[in-house]
Amino acid sequence: MCGICGTIGSPNKDLLKKMADALIHRGPDSEGFYLDETAGLGIRRLRIIDLETGDQPVYNEDKTLCLIFNGEIYNFKELRSGLQSRGHKFYTRSDTEVIVHLYEDYGKDCVNKLEGMFAFAIWDKKKQELFIARDRLGIKPLYYYYNNGIFRFASEMKSILADKSLSFKINPQALAYFFSFLYIPCPLSIFQGIYKLPPAHTLSLKGGQLRIEKYWDLTFKNKLAGLSVAEYAQTGLKLLEDSVGKHLISDVPLGVFLSGGIDSSAITALMRKITGGSIKTFSIGFGEKDKSYNELDYARIVSDKFGTEHRQFIIEPKIIDILPEVVWHLDEPFADSSAILNFLIAREARRHVTVALTGIGGDEVFGGYPRYLGARMSLAYTKLPLRLRKFINISLSPFLRETLSSGNTAGRIKRFLKGCLLDDCQRYIYWLRFFEKAEGFSLFSGELKEELLNADIAKIHTDYFNGANADDYLDKIYYVDANTYLPDDLLHIGDRMSMAHSLEVRVPFCDHKLAEFCAAVPYQVKFNGFNLKGLLKKSLRGILPESILNKRKSGFMAPVGRWLKDDLKDYVVSVLSEEAIERTKLFNYKTVRIILDDHFQGRANHTHQIWALLVFKLWYDSYIDNHG
User: Fold this and answer.
1) Which residue from 17, 81, 492, 559 lies 20 to 30 Å from 467 (Cα-Cα)?
2) For domain 229-317+332-367+483-549, which CATH number applies: 3.30.1340.30, 3.40.50.1820, 2.60.120.620, 3.40.50.620?
3) Separation of CA 244 from chain center
4) Catalytic residue list
5) Torsions phi, psi of 216, nearest 5?
6) Tens-digit pLDDT profile for residues 359-395
7) Would you list the DSSP string of 245-297?
């Protein structure tokens, strides 16, 4: 695992050094550089595989190709064997060197040979061409900037910002996306001119021409037919077991983030089946005030069954002390509060291991979100006349009192009823949004508000819904999540919060072969009735305890609603004071004040909106006020 960076146009060692230093948390073990008259490449390395000879950059035999790489290639031993049989000479035992020789043989098609998580860059000195690729599901990040012949790229945006010769302005569209969805989807970033390379894409730069191409996609039309539910379950379990096995390749200690949910429990169970050695597991939980968010008892059940070396942490964190650090590591404004939990568990786990497996991706691949059931039920509900649906919404919504518990059933019902007044696409997008359109636009001040009035702040999600290679409604929304929420929220958290502590996180559920299989499974089989992750649960019957398979889904969430009303109330009021808000020249303080008052006085649950405002202001203080 590493941090990579580079430049085309006016390269110099001092700049590369600054860019690499901004990534030192990603790779504290070593640094390396390549520099010629056109290109410069930099790397900070965290040693995971080939501890002795695997430093980067890595070259081909005649050193006409130079490679820097972030990630892990899990099939590198098979690829290496094939390359050696064709005459390639290796000088390391690393997975990194495999990529450069694959590029020699297959050119840009080399990405289709790779299994794993990756973002890499190859400088072809002969062709004077830069080639960059990102893995299929977006596990590893890659930002880039290109203007007036100057190209910069890096694993994290802060590395590009280390180039003080460049200046950046906030991207209004990205800002609006953030307050709608709590994250900023690819290819946008918070700054104009800086972009994220989307998952499953390559980037080539030659002769001043930038070319971005997609090399892989999920399709939901090639459904597997004629299989029994048991056969689907057996195949899915075998693919998951194969994926877990591949993810155990390491020359350093590894463990598991064990939440007590089905996904991380499945990974623990399959690790035990594969290895007889010690398995280290880590869980995090809360005290009595927030016990509805705890899954520690379930994690302990799994640990006891599979004989893991288990550590659990009850947190009473001083959020005020760590939140600015969390925000800085996240790079962009990002308001998924589970980032706090990921930061804390990664910090504790790093004391014992260098690699940790996690269950990220299980909900997208196997269908685990309650909103998926809502989407399925909406297909029947929306057959009612629109006038009747409007009447039901108006009649029931005022009596549904939202709570600050992890479930908040009333809030979900209200969103379901209102969403079902919209068409299929906009209904699902409405369920994903945290600021309604009118409410969101009233948040912004004068010029910014005017600029956004006619903007489509759901275009990226809408385009994925309409562009899905799928016929069924449920498959279309899986495709939306696989291309937005998974890479730009969950995997973003996993990467940034682990790398903050120089910990590598691996995600077996994001294996592309497993994802392809699940896309080919009819959604009725995936649910196996109206049962979230019904197929996965069936495949794990007899492997996981029934108490784990039958438990209510709670998610990996922080009790932010209570924090905001109690522990953090004075802090929030201070950070979001009228003076502080007006200084940004972005927001209408009257709207901010209404949101705060309604939440604190119990008239509405604005947890997500307030958290978004809070982390944005902290991000603004760190990235704008402190850097100009």
Assistant:
1) 492
2) 3.40.50.620
3) 19
4) 2
5) -155, 150
6) 999 999 999 998 999 999 999 999 999 999 999 888 8
7) HHTT--SS-EEEE--SSHHHHHHHHHHHHH--S--EEEEEEE-GGGGGG--HH
